[in-house]
Amino acid sequence: MKSVVAFIFLISFNLASAKIFLNCEFAKELGKNEAIERVYIPHWVCLAQGESQLNTSKLVNYPNQSSSYGIFQINSKEQCGKDKKGGFCNIKCSDLLDDDIKDDIKCAKVIFDRSGFNNWKSWQNRCKSTSTIDKNKALPNLVNCQYK
């Protein structure tokens, strides 16, 4: 019985610290950050949709022993530290799994400043368009979000 209660507590704790954003809600969070240029907010939303479906608690483990964390799927190989602060973001990877995305945005901006959006395959596949006619790579419509 105690193990069932402990299991339910752990599930409840995990659900309480995770969040799945809506597009406009996420755009507004990005808009609060002065480091994020407003013109790129639709790109950031598109990227996070592709990487995590806007889920702050998404964790993916890879065969090469690395993992990707959080809403932007920041990887432990070079970008964050698995057991302690590290990577070029100087952050503990597990800190990217909660619903406070300020640190996620800060790290994603560091990655962006190093290589633009090209670091994220989902942005390349879903969001980067070389043509205005490319319907498969449309950015989300955030016109009514008021994130400015």
UniProtKB/TrEMBL annotation:
Hydrolase is among the record's keywords: yes
Residues making up the signal peptide according to the UniProt record: 1-18
MF annotations from Gene Ontology: lysozyme activity
Catalytic activity: Hydrolysis of (1->4)-beta-linkages between N-acetylmuramic acid and N-acetyl-D-glucosamine residues in a peptidoglycan and between N-acetyl-D-glucosamine residues in chitodextrins
Pfam name, any one: Lys
Superkingdom in the source lineage: Eukaryota
Domain Glycosyl hydrolases family 22 (GH22) positions: 89-107
Keywords recorded for this protein, A-Z: Antimicrobial, Bacteriolytic enzyme, Disulfide bond, Glycosidase, Hydrolase, Signal
Protein's UniProt keywords contain Disulfide bond: yes
EC number: 3.2.1.17
UniProt record, GO biological process: defense response to bacterium; killing of cells of another organism
Transmembrane segments: none
Database matches in SUPFAM superfamilies: Lysozyme-like (SSF53955)
Family: Belongs to the glycosyl hydrolase 22 family.
PANTHER family reported in the protein's UniProt record: LYSOZYME C
Protein name: lysozyme
